Structures are given as structure tokens and as C-alpha cells.
């Protein structure tokens, strides 16, 4: 396929086994740079179970294994030949129907006359949630500080009853996916959901990636910043996209068993050069939390402007803005605020226990990590204080009781089982990063009265400590105050 874009460089390729976590953060995560990592998938069960021998050392998808062992009643499939607004047309079918179409297409025919000749690409399959007892892979150490999936394993992303419908909860159950597609399937130009990081591992097959620096992202939009380029291989209209000719791209050919790290805000387009199976996670943490907030804020301004003409006749204008934001972006300000309050509390708990004499031998690197996390959350919360959504009048009338109770009563939060699960997962993740091991440690039971797996005291008073800092969080200002006091205690 001819390339119509100006490629100015290749994505760096690094041996993942020789790269430390600190080096990964310094060279790639903090500066927001893409990288291909090798040598991290050798122990994955998926490499053996999901593939068959091909030519040479190549592997190919074992479609029969999927049909027999993962008979998902409904998977989401993209029709790569049919555009639907900014994405490809999405279909739902059973795993068997998808595989029948793939196999039929490989023999020059289709099992479905209505889709004759179409290339179907299985995307966004929530495999981990659907088959939790089948451990296909282990998340590499570089990616375990995954706030998004940690949170969703114990919390819903939406709490408002008019937003949290059944379909929403399924789609937002986690952001761990399996993708499967024949040679020629592809994904249009896009930046990832929530402006999250992502990592993508090829179990088999090869992919071609094109990346655009975030500083040039405005060049792929029209003059009104509403419509963006869909396919780099189309004849892109200079009249509609006058800045597109100025763009400069990085390219990458990702081989089987390689993992690519996709930073926040990098628009990218991906093509399967062979029949391919990949494992993909979207995730964010302290290093790109500001990207998530900036996207929410920009999308909020658009949602607000769109309905500004009904402000005077709307009983709950701010609430309507937030509902529209959740529908369009997948999360609103109040969902996000609940999220960062709970991560702040989990980090304060860990920092408190690291400062106790009984655990003074633990790594100071973990303490620095926790301080950075809290500083990042504080920076975002400080920006939130300036938004209309959190002014006193809107705060009192627009936040549902479900959302309010989810961030306001600190003592109640610390006693919730869902929060305790989150706190335990956070503790295990940082212990794993600190130890440098390749697999997460087994679960450790909580000691009585404690919200942390590393506490050695049965009479731990972490709850009293935190409630002495701030007993209630009524808005972003209180969260800033809580973090400031927690950090000054240290």
C-alpha cells in the first residue's frame, strides 16, 4: 500500500528484558514517547494456545482453538470497508460467525452474502472480563501502574442511574482487549480513548503503525477543529484539511511477540500486514493524568457550547452538560472526581504506612512514586476548582447523591470493600514495581482494621490519621487541602 504521508523517522526498538522500570519512565513514559519493546512475551500462554506454526518462524492464528474454547455469544466487529462517522461500521456477531467469515474470506468466499468481500476485524473484546480463569498473559512491569483498570476492577465508572445503563457498564467494564484480524484489516487515524496510554502486543502477525506528534495534531483537523482525517492513504482534501501537508510521521513495523507503547495524544493509524492477534490495554496514571483532564475539559466546553441556547430554560443546565459529556467522552467531571479522590486516598494510605518505623526498610523509591502521584492529582484537582461545574451553586444542585457520597465521606469510603480492593491492588502494583519481578505477588490478607496490605500493626490507626487531615471532601478544594496536609506530614 502506497504511503501518502511524510515519514521522518522510525519508532525506537528496545530490549524490554534489559530495561529497568525507572529507565522506561525516564525515556518513554514521562516524556511521552513511543517505543517498541522486545523479549517480554516468552512466558505467555497465548503464544502457544492461540497460534499455529506458519512458514519459517512465523506463527498464525489458531481460529479453531478460539471457536472451541471461547464461544463468545457476542463480539464486536469492525467492517473495515465501511465508514461510520469517524470510525468503521460496527457489527455484533458470535465468535463462530466471525471465524466462519474469516475462513470463508481466506478461500475467496464469504459465509454471509450481505458482507461478501468485506474485511472484518474483531476489536475491543473484553477477554479478561469474559474469561477470568484463563490467564493468557501477564502484564509487563512497565504497565502495571494502571489506574484505569485497577479502578474498574472494583468500581463502576458511572454512578448516576441515567448514565449507568447496562450497555454502558459492559463497554466500560475494563480497558483490556483482544483484537483479531486478517491481513488487510486496519484501524483509522485516531487518538486513544481518554487520551490514555496504550500498549499493544502482537501474539502473532505484523502491524504497520504511523504516529503523529501531539504538537502537530491540529494539522489533521479542518478549520473548525470538528472533522479530522479518516485514512492516511486516501486523497486527503487540501481544501478541507489545509494543514495536513505539513504533518511529519513516525513509522513502525511491529513484529510478532513485540509490544508497542503508545503515548498520550499521539494520533496513529494501524494496518495488519498479516493475519494478526494482539492484546491491548488502555491505561493512565500520574504521568498522563493531565492529558485525561485536558480532554474532559475540552470536550466539556464543546458539550456546553452546543446547548448554551437552552441554559435559561433548563432546570439543571450543568447536569445536562455532564450527562452529555459522559455520553460523548465516556466519563464526566463527577465520574473523574470520584476516581481521583479514591486514588488520592489509596496513595495517602500507602505513604502513611511507608513512614512507619516498622516498614522503614522498604524502598524510598516507592515513597517518591507515591509523592509524585499525589502531586499529579493535586495539580489536576487545582484546575478543577476553576470550572463552573464545581462552583458552589452548581456543585450543590448538579451532583447526584450517588456521586456525592462516593467522594465526600472519607470514613465511609475507607470502610467500603470496593475501596479496600482498590487499595490492595495499588499496594501490590507498587510493591511489584519496586521488586522488579515479572509477575504480581499473590494476594495478602488485610490485617484487622487496616486498609493496606503492608501494614504490620493489628491496631493500625490509618483511618483516624486520614480523617484528621480532612473529614469530608466537598469539592476539589478539599482534595487539594487533603493532599497538602498528607505531604506536609511526611
UniProtKB/TrEMBL annotation:
SUPFAM superfamilies: Clavaminate synthase-like. One of its GO terms (cellular component) is nucleus. Transmembrane segments: none annotated. Gene3D superfamilies: Cupin. It comes from the Eukaryota. Residues 144-300 form the JmjC domain. It holds the Pfam family Cupin_8. One of its GO terms (molecular function) is sequence-specific DNA binding. GO terms for biological process: positive regulation of translational termination. InterPro entries: Cupin_8, JmjC_dom, JMJD6_ArgDemeth/LysHydrox. Belongs to the JARID1 histone demethylase family. This is JmjC domain-containing protein.
Amino acid at each position: 500500500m502506497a504511503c501518502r504521508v511524510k515519514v521522518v523517522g522510525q519508532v525506537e526498538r528496545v530490549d524490554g528484558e534489559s530495561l529497568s522500570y525507572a529507565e522506561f519512565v525516564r525515556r518513554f513514559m514521562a516524556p511521552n514517547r513511543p517505543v517498541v519493546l522486545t523479549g517480554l512475551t516468552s512466558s505467555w500462554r497465548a503464544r502457544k494456545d492461540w497460534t499455529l506454526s506458519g512458514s519459517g518462524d512465523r506463527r498464525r492464528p489458531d481460529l479453531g482453538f478460539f471457536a472451541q474454547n471461547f464461544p463468545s455469544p457476542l463480539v464486536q466487529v469492525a467492517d473495515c470497508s465501511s465508514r461510520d462517522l469517524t470510525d468503521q461500521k460496527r457489527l455484533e456477531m458470535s465468535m463462530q460467525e466471525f471465524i466462519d467469515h474469516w475462513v470463508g474470506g481466506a478461500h475467496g468466499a464469504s459465509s454471509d452474502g450481505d458482507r461478501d468481500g468485506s474485511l472484518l476485524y474483531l476489536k475491543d473484546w473484553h477477554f479478561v472480563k469474559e474469561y477470568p480463569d484463563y490467564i493468557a498473559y501477564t502484564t509487563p512491569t512497565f504497565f502495571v501502574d494502571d489506574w484505569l483498570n485497577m479502578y474498574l476492577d472494583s468500581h463502576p465508572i458511572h454512578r448516576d442511574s441515567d448514565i449507568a445503563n447496562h450497555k454502558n457498564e459492559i463497554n466500560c467494564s475494563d480497558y483490556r482487549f483482544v483484537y483479531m484480524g486478517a491481513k488487510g484489516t486496519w484501524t483509522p487515524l485516531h487518538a486513544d480513548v481518554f487520551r490514555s496510554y496504550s500498549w499493544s502486543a502482537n501474539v502473532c502477525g505484523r502491524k504497520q503503525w504511523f504516529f503523529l506528534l501531539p504538537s502537530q495534531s491540529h494539522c489533521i483537523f479542518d478549520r473548525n477543529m470538528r472533522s479530522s482525517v479518516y485514512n492516511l492513504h486516501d486523497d486527503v482534501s487540501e481544501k478541507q484539511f489545509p494543514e495536513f501537508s505539513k504533518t511529519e510521521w513516525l513509522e513502525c513495523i511491529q513484529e510478532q511477540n513485540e509490544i508497542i507503547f503508545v503515548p498520550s495524544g499521539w494520533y496513529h493509524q494501524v494496518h495488519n500486514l498479516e493475519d494478526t492477534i494482539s492484546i491491548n490495554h488502555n491505561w493512565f496514571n500520574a504521568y498522563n493524568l493531565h492529558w485525561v483532564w485536558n480532554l474532559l475539559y475540552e470536550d466539556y466546553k464543546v458539550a456546553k457550547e452546543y446547548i448554551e441556547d437552552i441554559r435559561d430554560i433548563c432546570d439543571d443546565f450543568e447536569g445536562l452538560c455532564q450527562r452529555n459529556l459522559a455520553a460523548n467522552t465516556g466519563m464526566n467531571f463527577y465520574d473523574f472526581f470520584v476516581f481521583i479522590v479514591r486514588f488520592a486516598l489509596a496513595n495517602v494510605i500507602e505513604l502513611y504506612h511507608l513512614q512507619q518505623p516498622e516498614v522503614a526498610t522498604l524502598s524510598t523509591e516507592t515513597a517518591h512514586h507515591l509523592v509524585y502521584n499525589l502531586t499529579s492529582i493535586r495539580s489536576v484537582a487545582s484546575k478543577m476548582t476553576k470550572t463552573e461545574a464545581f462552583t458552589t451553586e452548581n456543585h450543590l444542585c448538579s451532583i447526584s447523591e450517588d456521586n456525592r457520597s462516593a467522594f465526600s465521606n472519607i470514613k465511609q469510603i475507607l470502610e467500603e470493600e470496593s475501596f479496600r480492593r482498590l487499595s490492595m491492588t495499588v499496594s501490590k502494583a507498587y510493591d511489584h514495581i519496586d521488586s522488579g519481578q515479572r509477575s504480581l505477588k499473590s494476594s495478602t490478607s488485610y490485617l484487622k482494621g487496616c486498609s493496606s496490605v503492608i501494614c504490620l500493626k493489628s491496631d493500625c490507626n490509618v483511618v483516624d490519621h486520614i480523617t484528621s487531615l480532612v473529614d469530608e471532601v466537598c469539592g476539589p478544594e478539599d482534595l487539594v487541602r487533603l493532599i497538602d496536609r498528607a505531604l506536609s506530614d511526611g
